[in-house]
């Protein structure tokens, strides 16, 4: 099958946009040592890895630039320079900002922009330092979610399982805002007990009709993953959301730290039932992000 969409990847040009975390040498991150990817990762390299696997379009997700608008404008310039590669983007925007409406209007002047992401949780250790969890208690965050939805923008949600129930309570008050759950909700504890807890918490989000789940980023918490080790996660996501609410994402180049694109794509091809391929690898993302993709 070809004509797939990669619904979650990153690009960066360190000469064009400033990314503090990519400049911080020797700093361990929740997903491991970022040293091998602290270099430019451009569309040409991404395509050279993804296209042989049938990928024909993609969704760029913001990735910690110092200035979200700088990053968004650069991504737009990449899309403009490569019209043969359909690409939409999700930008960073602080939904608690006093001038949120003006910011969203500026972002929406860029034709590739489909949604925003503001990370709620990455991993327990980093979250304790960054304090991002406090967003859930800030009434401005809910107001911002609602405002984004009224403008037709989606929200990419990154969090950890322990925050799912509380987050679902917030999202239930913003039912008109489409939500993409990044990385299957970051199941960081891969023990049988940990996966059982993750699945229980995931239900709070899968019960909300506006939430779609991304099969992405599973290597960040299991650097030596195998098809069998991630099978329970894939199976549970499909069982709770269904193929029409699940989409594939590589999370490259972060997940490139631990595997090549061909192995990643083949693993998901093997794990997702054939009858669900069209939804998971193409239709869900095309519909969610309003992206037209050519068929081979």
Protein model, in words:
By secondary structure, the chain is an alpha/beta fold. The protein is built from eleven helices and eight strands. It has a single domain, classed as Metal-dependent hydrolases (TIM Barrel), CATH 3.20.20. The protein has an eight-stranded parallel beta sheet with strand order 1-2-3-4-5-6-7-8. α7 packs parallel to α8, α8 runs parallel beside α9 and α9 packs across α10. The longest helix is centred in the C-terminal third of the chain and has 15 residues.
Average of pLDDT: 95
Main beta sheet, described? 8 strands, parallel
The CATH topology assignment is TIM Barrel
User: What level of helicity do the residues show?
Assistant: 25-40%
Strand order across the largest sheet: 1-2-3-4-5-6-7-8
Q: What CATH architecture would you give?
A: Alpha-Beta Barrel
Uncertain ranges = none
Oligomeric state of shown chains: single chain
Proportion of strand residues: 5-15%
Shape: globular
Compose a concise summary of this entry.
The chain has 296 residues and is α/β, with parallel strands linked by helices.
Topology of this protein?
Blueprint: E1 4-9, H1 20-23, H2 43-50, E2 55-61, H3 68-81, E3 87-92, H4 100-107, E4 113-117, H5 124-130, H6 139-150, E5 154-157, H7 164-171, E6 179-181, H8 192-206, E7 211-215, H9 227-241, E8 246-248, H10 261-271, H11 277-288
Helix pairs in contact: 7-8, 8-9, 9-10
Features:
TIM Barrel, 296 residues, 8-stranded parallel β-sheet, alpha/beta
């Amino acid at each position: 099958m070809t004509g797939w969409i990669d619904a979650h990847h990153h690009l960066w040009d360190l000469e064009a946009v400033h990314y503090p975390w990519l400049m911080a040498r020797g700093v361990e991150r929740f997903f491991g040592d970022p040293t091998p990817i602290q270099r430019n990762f451009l569309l040409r390299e991404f395509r050279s890895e993804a296209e042989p696997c049938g990928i024909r379009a993609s969704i760029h997700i913001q990735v910690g630039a110092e200035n979200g608008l700088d990053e968004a404008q650069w991504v737009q310039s990449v899309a403009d320079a490569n019209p043969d590669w359909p690409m939409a983007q999700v930008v960073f925007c602080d939904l608690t900002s006093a001038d949120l409406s003006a910011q969203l209007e500026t972002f929406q002047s860029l034709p590739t922009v489909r949604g925003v992401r503001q990370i709620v949780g990455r991993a327990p250790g980093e979250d304790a330092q960054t304090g991002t969890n406090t967003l859930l208690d800030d009434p401005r965050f809910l107001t911002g979610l609602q405002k984004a939805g009224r403008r037709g923008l989606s929200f990419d949600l990154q969090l950890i399982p322990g925050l799912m129930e509380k987050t679902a309570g917030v999202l239930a008050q913003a039912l008109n805002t489409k939500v993409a759950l990044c990385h299957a909700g970051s199941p960081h504890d891969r023990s049988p007990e940990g996966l059982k807890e993750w699945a229980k918490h995931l239900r709070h989000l899968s019960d909300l009709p506006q939430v779609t789940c991304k099969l992405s980023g599973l290597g960040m918490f299991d650097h030596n993953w195998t098809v069998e080790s991630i099978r329970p996660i894939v199976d549970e996501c499909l069982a709770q959301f269904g193929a029409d609410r699940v989409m594939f994402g590589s999370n490259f180049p972060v997940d490139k730290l631990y595997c090549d694109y061909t192995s990643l794509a083949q693993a998901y091809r093997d794990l997702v039932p054939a009858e669900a391929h069209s939804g998971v690898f193409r239709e869900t993302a095309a519909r969610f992000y309003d992206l037209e993709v050519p068929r081979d």
